[in-house]
Amino acid sequence: MRWDNLSDHPAATTADAALFGADAVTTRTFDTPEFRGITFHEVRARSVLNRVPGASRMPFEWTVNPYRGCTHACVYCFARKTHSYLDLDTGLGFDSQIVVKVNAPELLRRQLASPRWQGAHVAMGTNVDCYQRAEGRYRLMPGIIAALRDHANPFSILTKGTLILRDLDLLLQAAEVTDVGISVSVGFTDQELWRTVEPGTPAPERRLDVVRTLTDHGIGCGVLMAPVIPFLGDHPDQLRATVRAVAASGATSVTPLVLHLRPGAREWFMAWLGRYHPHLTRRYERLYADGAYAPKWYQRRITRQVHELADEFGIGPARGGGSRRLAVPSRAPEPRPSDQGPTQLTLL
Ligand code: SF4
After folding, report:
1. 1 belongs to a structural domain
2. Going by CA atoms, what residue is nearest to atom 4 of ligand 1?
3. What is the CATH number of the domain that holds 293?
4. How many CB atoms lie within 10 A of CB 99?
5. β-strand 49-51 against 62-64: which pairing, if any?
6. Which parts of this chain are annotated as the region Disordered (predicted)?
7. How many domains, the chain?
8. How far is the centre of ligand 1, averaged over its atoms, from the C-alpha of 265 (Å)?
9. Which residues, at least 6 apart from 114, have a Cβ–Cβ distance to it below 8 Å?
10. Does the residue 66 lie in any domain?
């Protein structure tokens, strides 16, 4: 395993080499049902604020990611590729070999206090989910949010984890002094699809309960409707059911994002497709023939449908009038012409 390559961003691996030393790694397993089969690699990071390469394409420039790998185990997760930089497996290894930056809270507090830090927005949940199950044990996020609160530093969180509600009081405190944006990812409400394609995540309804709770407490919360999965989650009735449920949760916005299949995720997803929906394999090969993204006509169609449904169900800024702070700008980046190049937003 290559512990000198723990940067979140492939383009930054040279600059960030030696962020960790091999002597700083402790490997643990826990014999509880929740963590059976999971290996945790605890590391002491030397830096926790990551600058996003090519940030002009993204609505944020700085990220904090206390974990690598994700037990939520979404088949389509394109952060899978980042496990290969550690010489770890991007399939089951991504789901079960979790790197934990155990000193992330103290390190962030120190870095925020540096005279060189200008107080830029910090985005979390952009690589892997910071409220995945491991967070229940390691409890890194309370210290991270407290550090951001104490420095009145604006931040946003994108998550599928209901565990975020554990930190509701801290989020409310932070929202008193700075901009806090929360976005929850719910690509569909289809139960069967959820169980097979996002096997480690809380159910979509539970995630929408998070939206409702945050909104009820005055923290505006948007929904990133991601991914919309072609031929499995894109039927008009499915889109309608999802947007209706999103509206009922009180979300301030809904932003659709069609599945994309970059290297690392593509192989894993296509193997899954071959097992569960083999009749769709050829259709996928045609739809994604040009690379990681579905054709623009398809993306535009989904976006238009979702926006029309959002209008019909009354999702929009007017619904968020009671929010204390802004919802996270969860707008997805425009499709890139090639599969390469760093893009940090996962399909959380
Ligand atoms: S898509 Fe998000 S929640 Fe799912 S495995 Fe990837 S990082 Fe985790």
Report:
1. no
2. 74
3. 3.20.20.70
4. 27
5. antiparallel
6. 313-348
7. 1
8. 11
9. none
10. yes
Q: State the burial class of residue 207 (Cβ atoms within 10 Å of its Cβ: 0-12, 13-18, 19+).
A: buried
Render each residue's pLDDT in the chain as its tens digit; 348 residues: 655 555 555 443 333 334 455 456 899 999 888 899 999 999 999 989 999 887 556 778 999 999 999 999 999 998 999 999 888 999 999 999 999 999 999 999 999 999 999 999 999 999 999 999 999 999 999 999 999 999 999 999 999 999 999 999 999 999 999 999 999 999 999 999 999 999 999 999 999 999 999 999 999 999 999 999 999 999 999 999 999 999 999 999 999 999 999 999 999 999 999 999 999 999 999 999 999 999 999 999 999 999 999 999 999 754 443 334 433 433 333 333 332 333 334 444
Point out the ligand 1 atom lying closest to the alpha carbon of residue 160: 3
Best probe residue, ligand 1, of 8, 38, 72, 81 (max atoms within 8 Å of C-beta) = 72
CA of 347 to the centre of ligand 1 (A): 6
Which amino acid, one-letter code, is at 188? F
Query: Cα–Cα distance between 326 and 222 in angstroms, integer?
Result: 9
Identify whether 194 is part of a domain.
yes
